[in-house]
Amino acid sequence: PHSQTPFSLIPNLDLVKDFVSDSMHCVYTGVTKKLTEIVQVGVPDKTFKLTTNVIDDIGIKQLNLNEQLPIYFFARKPRVIAESSLWKACEARVFLLYYVPILFTGLPTAYFNHMCLLSMAMNILESKSLSAQYCDYAHECLLKFIAQGEALYGDTFLSFNVHSLCHLSSDVKRFGCLTENSAFPF
After folding, report:
1. What is the pLDDT of residue 7?
2. Rounded to an integer, what distance in angstroms lies between the CA atom of residue 125 and that of residue 41?
3. pLDDT at 37
4. Is the dihedral of CA 178, 181, 183, 186 positive or negative?
5. What are the distances in angstroms from CA 7 to CA 4, 88, 164?
6. Using N-to-C axis directions, what is the helix angle for 160-175 and 109-126, rounded to 10°?
């Protein structure tokens, strides 16, 4: 049985607003890996999924992009999308922030735009120079991403990690850009 957390006894502590959502787990190992799985495997009652040929083509393009990544800037080059279930958080991060807008241009427009919403919002929220100025825009993108995700992939898309996206921009406003408040350094 579940019991009340001792944190709830701390006066003036807001359990939602006073804890930062960790982008490493929420976004990269959570939502990003979930999205790559959905587009490869599909969702029951939905018709969209990438064909094996498209997945292989994306993998080939991805390997070409990997050769262009400066090793000193990226800790790990992402394995091909067919191996996304094995990705570490830093691989999923590189994929979402840098590869999605390039590799998914061949997707149907609704799916491409959906993935780009998350990619763009995360680029804003991770940027020290952009996050404060464009935080509200990133929030709008994330809310659209959630709504469109439900429409494109059904109710199974709506997980705790997807819901946590609603709180990222307020976390950035309160605590600074996501790169300053993530578990990546650990």
Report:
1. 86
2. 29
3. 92
4. positive
5. 8, 30, 19
6. 30
